[in-house]
Design brief:
Structural class: mainly alpha
Number of strands: 0
Number of domains: 1
Number of helices: 12
Shape: globular
Helix content: over 70%
Strand content: under 5%
C-alpha cells in the first residue's frame, strides 16, 4: 500500500502543477490595467538593454549584465511565487527526448548553415561583431557553459515563469494573450542582434521564427508543469545549436579571433 502511494506521488504532484497552470491560463483574472501595463512595459526593457549593450557600449559582458541582472533578475525575484511551484526536475523520459532533440536540432542548424548560410548572413559581419563586443576564443568555453546553463534558466524564469504566468492571472484583451505577448516580446529583443549579422529580410524572418519557438516553449511549460524542463529545452536546442554554429565558423576561419 505504501509502495503504491510512493510511486504515484511524483505523478500526482506533476498533475497538480499542470492543473494549476492550466486553470490559471483559462481564468480571466482581476481587472488591473495598471499592473498589466507595467508588466507589458517591463517586457520591452530587454530591447533597450540589448541595444545599449551591443550597439552603444559594444560589449558582450555589458549586454549580459544589462539584460540578465537589470531587466530579468529583479522580476524573477519579485515573481518568485509564480514560478516556484513549477521548479521541479523533468522526467528521465523527457531528459532523453531533449538530448535526442538537441542532436537533431544542431544537425539541422549545421545543414542549413552549410547550404543556405551565404544567402542569410555574412560570415564577415559575424566575425566583426564578435570582435567589436570583445569576444575571443579564450573565453569561448566559459561563455558557452554560461549560455547553455545559466542563460536559458534565467530567460525561462522571466519570460515563461513570471511574464506568462502573471499575464495569465490578469484580465487581458483576448484569450492566450499571455502566450502571444510573452513570445513576441521574447523574440523582439533578438531583432537588434539579428540585424547586425543577417541580410535584409532575414532578420524579420528570424524574429518571427523565434516568436513561434517562444510559443512552443510556453505550450511545453503548460504541458509539463516544469520550468526546469523548458529551461533544459531552451539550452539544449537553440543555445546549443548557436554554440555548434560558432564552432563551425571557427573551423572555417582559423586564427581570426
Amino acid at each position: 500500500m505504501n509502495t503504491t502511494e510512493h510511486r504515484n506521488e511524483p505523478q500526482s504532484t506533476r498533475n497538480e502543477s499542470q492543473d494549476t497552470l492550466e486553470s490559471a491560463s483559462l481564468s480571466k483574472g482581476p481587472n488591473n490595467p495598471v499592473r498589466l501595463i507595467g508588466i507589458l512595459l517591463w517586457t520591452l526593457l530587454p530591447c533597450l538593454a540589448i541595444w545599449m549593450g551591443m550597439c552603444q557600449l559594444k560589449s558582450a559582458a555589458w549586454s549580459f549584465f544589462l539584460y540578465h541582472a537589470i531587466c530579468l533578475l529583479p522580476a524573477i525575484l519579485w515573481g518568485k511565487s509564480l514560478w516556484l511551484p513549477t521548479f521541479r526536475r523533468p522526467t528521465k523520459k523527457m531528459c532523453a527526448a531533449l538530448l535526442v532533440s538537441s542532436v537533431v536540432f544542431s544537425g539541422i542548424a549545421l545543414f542549413t548553415y552549410e547550404f543556405l548560410g551565404n544567402r542569410m548572413l555574412s560570415n564577415d559581419s559575424v566575425l566583426t561583431l564578435l570582435k567589436d563586443v570583445g569576444f575571443s576564443k579564450s573565453i569561448f568555453w566559459p561563455l558557452s557553459i554560461y549560455a547553455i546553463v545559466v542563460n536559458p534558466l534565467v530567460e525561462e524564469l522571466f519570460w515563461r515563469g513570471v511574464v506568462l504566468n502573471e499575464l495569465d492571472k490578469l484580465k487581458t484583451p483576448f484569450k492566450h494573450f499571455g502566450l502571444v505577448w510573452s513570445s513576441l516580446a521574447y523574440a523582439a529583443f533578438h531583432y537588434t542582434i539579428f540585424r547586425l549579422v543577417l541580410f535584409p529580410g532575414w532578420a524579420e524572418v528570424g524574429t518571427l521564427m523565434l516568436a513561434v519557438y517562444g510559443a512552443f516553449l510556453a505550450v511545453l511549460y503548460r504541458r509539463s508543469g516544469s520550468i526546469v524542463t523548458i529551461s533544459m529545452a531552451h539550452g539544449l536546442l537553440t543555445d546549443m545549436a548557436a554554440i555548434v554554429l560558432l564552432l563551425d565558423l571557427f573551423r572555417r576561419y582559423p586564427g581570426v579571433l
